[in-house]
Amino acid sequence: MSRKPGAVPRRLLAVLAVSLLVAACAGGVIPNGGPRSASLPSSGNVSQRAATPIPSTPAATLPAPAQSGDGSNAASLGLVRGPQITTLNAERQKSDAAMAAFKTSCPGLLRREDQSGLTQSGEWQAACDAVKSWSGDGISFFAAHMDAVQVGDGKAFATGYFEPEIAGSRTKQPGYNVPVYKRPPDLIDVNLGEFSDSLKGRTIRGKVRGSNFKLYDDRAQIEAGSLAGRGLEIAYAADPVDFFFLQIQGSGRLRLPDGEIMRIGYDSQNGRDYTGIGKLMRERGLLGPGETSLQGITAWLRRNPEEGRKIMQENKSFIFFRELTGPSAALGPLGAMGYPVIGETSVAADVKFVPLGAPVFLSMDRAEPNGIWVAQDTGGAIKGSNRFDTFWGAGERAKAIAGGMAARGSALIFLPKASVQRLGL
User: Fold this and answer.
1) What does the pLDDT look like over 83-124, one tens digit per residue?
2) How far apart, in Å, are the Cα atoms of 368 and each of 38, 52, 328, 363?
C-alpha cells in the first residue's frame, strides 16, 4: 500500500520527537519558503553584463525602538510608527501595480496565520473589502486603509531574482542529460511545532530508513545518480551550470528543442542547508576584479568546469520541480502564497518579520527597487528583518538587474490601521 510522502509510521513518532529536535538544534531546519538565494540569480545564455546601478539617496531610517522581546519576530524586535503614506516618494504606476497585487493576495492574506506578530485575524478584512471596488490610485488606497511602520532599526538590504530560461528537453537525448527531478515519494516533511512550541512554524525534511529518520540525499549524491532509475525525471537540462542557478531561483522556463516552453516550479527541497557559492568563491580568492556579480561567477564556473562542479556541490541543497500548466502558469512563477509573482511588484521576505501579502515600501541607494512592493514570496536565504528579494520578471533586462542587485537603505511595512492602533503606535 502506498503512503503519502509526508506520512510517518506511528512507530517512529517517538523516535522523531527526539531526533528532529536534535537536528533542529544542529541547524538542519528548513528555512522559511523555498530554496532561493537572491544573491545569485539564475544563469541562462543571455547578456553577460549586470545592469549599471542607478544611484539614489535613501530616506533616513527612524530612531530604532527599544526591543520588546527576543527579536525572533517583528513584534518582539520592536516597532516605530512611520511617516504618512501620502508623504512617501512612491511612483504612481508602481503603486497601482502594488495595489493590484495586494488585491490578488487578499484571499491568502485573510486565511494565513501571521508569524510576524504584527496582525491578527480579521484586521486585514476592511482593506481587502475596500480594494475590490476601489476606483482611485494605489497610493490613496494604501493611505486610506493602512499606516506605515518601521521594524527594528529599519535598515534594509535588497537583492533580486528573476525567472530564468534555459535549454531543456522532456526526454533524455544527446546534449540534454541533466535530470530535472520531481519530488521523491520517500521525502518526508515533519512539522517541528508538533513536538515543541519553541519550534512552531519550522519544518524538517528527511527520509525513513528502518526505524530511523535520516538526512535526505545531498546534491553530490543526487548528481552521482542516487535517484536515477526511479521514474522521477520530468525533463532534462542541457547545461549543469544553468540548471544549478535555476534551482536557486526555484522556478523557470525550459526552452525545448522544438521551441516550446515548458514552465517548471518549485515542488520541494531535500532539507539540506543552503550554501551560497558566491561567498565561498570570494573567501577563497577565486574571483578577480569585476567577477563578483552573477555574470562573473557564471563565467568562472564555465572556465573551470571540474572545480566548479565541486564548488556547486558544496551547496548541498537540491530542488525538486513540477511542471506548471494551466492559466496561472501563463502569468508567471508561483510565489509562496500560491499566486503568480509579478515583475517589479512582488518581493520575497521573511514571514517572521513581514506578513505575506503586506505592502512594503523600499527607499534604497539604487533607484530601481524604490517604491511599493507586495510580499508574496519567501526564500531560503531571505532571513531576518528588513531583508528583501525583489522580483524582476523574465528576460535579459530582468536578468541584468537582478544579477547585480545589492541595495541598502530603509524599509517600511504597511499594516491595517486596526493593527497599528492595537499595537499602540
Assistant:
1) 999 999 999 999 999 999 999 999 999 999 999 999 998 999
2) 16, 10, 27, 10
